[in-house]
Amino acid sequence: MLNTLPSPISSLLDTRIDGHSLPAGLYTREDVFQADMEVFFSRHWILLGLECDVPEPGDALVIDIGSTSLILLRDDDNEIRVVRNVCRHRGARLLDAGSTVVSKLVCPYHQWTYELSGKLSYAPHMGKDFDKSCRSLKAVNFKSISGLIYVCLSDNPPQDIKRLEEVMEPRLAPYDIRSAKVAHQLDVIEKGNWKLTMENNRECYHCSANHPELCVSFVDLDFGYDPYSLSPEDREEAEAHFAMYTERTRDWEADGFPSSPVEQVRNCETNFRTQRLIIAGAGESQTEDSTAASSKLLGTMTRKDLGDTHLWGHNSWCHFMGDHAVTSIAIPLSADTTLIRTTWLVHKDAVEGVDYDLAKLTHVWTETTKQDAELVARAQAGIQDPGYEPGVYSRFTEGALDDFASWYIERMRAHGY
């Protein structure tokens, strides 16, 4: 009788070849998905949301990560908190998924009531000797890095997030993301594994053929090219572009705006990359004509020529420009389904229809996200085909994918797989 049991996950990890995409089972198998949730979405820092998702005391946002449900909220002292959405009585969910406004957190089941600090204040019919002090809602480790809320569900979160904090706090300070306003939010379901989502985001090999809106403001050379495939004229143009990059980066940094690339992508726990990128065309913003979408610039910004400060994490990508910011968070729903939550941010005092046009603000990344969803679905369908075998990455345009796949293997090994 043939053995139909799946091979151990470790065997799949063993078969990965450097410079190649992952074996099919790492994108498709249910046991791998559960391991991914345990390792990458429980024991590592993930981007969960933004301080400006909950701008006022009493504002709360529920986000589900697998079987875990979290409440991001702002308490009565205007402090951010993240607590588990689990009543300390018999475990009922306190709030439904999505945004709401509350004065207290009241369990719908038996009316146990918690202050916004998480402290249990009311537990009817529990007797005079019942000790409420040890029944507070369970808090979750989190860090607000310039208004970006990172959480780790582990009691021993990775310490190397300090590097991310050290790099990004000064880079994002002028944008004042903590005080920004959510102008729009879009949820898109991708029919693909979360790793395919992240791989798709980490290369622009596919951009010129699939993202006409984005390519107005993106410079495809910035994401790699094969110098041997270029004509002498195109090679000269590429060399001139990168000479300009060196000069522009030097000028930005001389003006007090950190811009050089910083990578922590291998031999680490907290995976991230950041760089200030040149915006093509008019050079102001990621819009359909590359001009600013909002006349009221973010935070203390006074210039529109400071490019795009991008930030990658293992479940997110963000772009910060003078006039607005775009954050995208990937939340796995199943082995072949991923939620992408994209949020557009503007200055807290910007008024729609006066300071910014919502359609112009959102058009590029709305279209790009929909296009990427189609591409990820195609990739997932192909990987499920018996004809799939891991493909070789382009060393010119897909180096970041090799870094990501290698980091993925490293982290799985580190956690016993």
UniProtKB/TrEMBL annotation:
Alphabetical list of PROSITE patterns matching this protein:
RIESKE
The organism's place on the tree of life at top rank: Bacteria
- Extract the GO molecular function terms from the UniProt entry: 2 iron, 2 sulfur cluster binding; iron ion binding; oxidoreductase activity
Entry-linked PANTHER family: CHOLINE MONOOXYGENASE, CHLOROPLASTIC
| Domain Rieske residue range list | 45-151
- What Gene3D superfamilies does its record include? Naphthalene 1,2-dioxygenase Alpha Subunit, Chain A, domain 1, Rieske [2Fe-2S] iron-sulphur domain
Could you say which cofactors this protein requires? Fe cation
Q: Sorted alphabetically, which InterPro entries does this protein's record hold?
A: Rieske_2Fe-2S, Rieske_2Fe-2S_sf, Ring_hydroxy_dOase_asu_C_dom, Rng_hydr_dOase-A
From the Swiss-Prot or TrEMBL record, give the protein name: (Fe-S)-binding protein
Arranged from A to Z, the UniProt key words for this protein are:
2Fe-2S, Iron, Iron-sulfur, Metal-binding, Oxidoreductase
Under Pfam families, the record lists:
Rieske (PF00355), Ring_hydroxyl_A (PF00848)
